[in-house]
Amino acid sequence: MTADNPFADAEIISIYTRQQAIEDGMFVDVSEMAKEAGIKYPVAVTTNLYEKWIKPSKEAEELGQSVNGRLWDVLFIFRMMALKANGNFIKFVVAFNDGTKAEDVDIWAVCEAQSPTDPSPAINIMLPEDY
After folding, report:
1. Shortest CA distance to 130 belongs to which of 46, 24, 50?
2. Tens-digit pLDDT profile for residues 1-15
3. 64: how many CB neighbours lie within 10 A of its CB?
4. Are 30 and 75 in contact (CB under 8 A)?
5. How far apart are CA 84 and CA 113, in angstroms?
6. Phi, psi of 80 (to 5 degrees)
7. Per-residue pLDDT tens digits for 68-101
8. Given the DSSP bridges, would you call strands 43-46 and 102-115 parallel, antiparallel or unpaired?
């Protein structure tokens, strides 16, 4: 045990990687669109965020809203907030309109290692209850 990392000598009994979470359906990989938005690290959103807010209702679709448009809004606002952030945890708000009303939704993003064995950075975007 060291003062910097009290778990340095701890035995790892289980590892659940980000990739496994994507394969299990806990996350949706949105890295391709994230690259278009100027984000250089892999990005995933929780399935909960995707299903509740990014995937538009039928009413919102009739207004011309799409998964790509809503996802772009999330990624663009995240990128703007990340450029000003100091740290690896970011809170931001996105307004979603379902056709009858607009709702401000709190969203969190965390930049962390992809797994204990892969320290390269990845970004996970979620609703607060998904953390």
Report:
1. 46
2. 455 677 778 887 777
3. 8
4. yes
5. 21
6. -60, -40
7. 999 999 999 999 999 999 999 999 999 998 878 8
8. unpaired
The pair of three-digit structure tokens given for residue 35, joined into one six-digit string: 């690259």
pLDDT tens digits, 27-47: 999 999 999 999 999 999 999
What single-letter amino acid sits at 128?
A: P
Q: What string of DSSP letters covers the chain?
A: --SS-TTTTPPP-----HHHHHHTTSEEE-HHHHHHTT--S-EEEEHHHIIIIIS--HHHHHTT--HHHHHHHHHHHHHHHHHH--SSEEEEEEEEE-SS-EEEEEEEEEEEEEETTEEEEEEEEE-GGG-
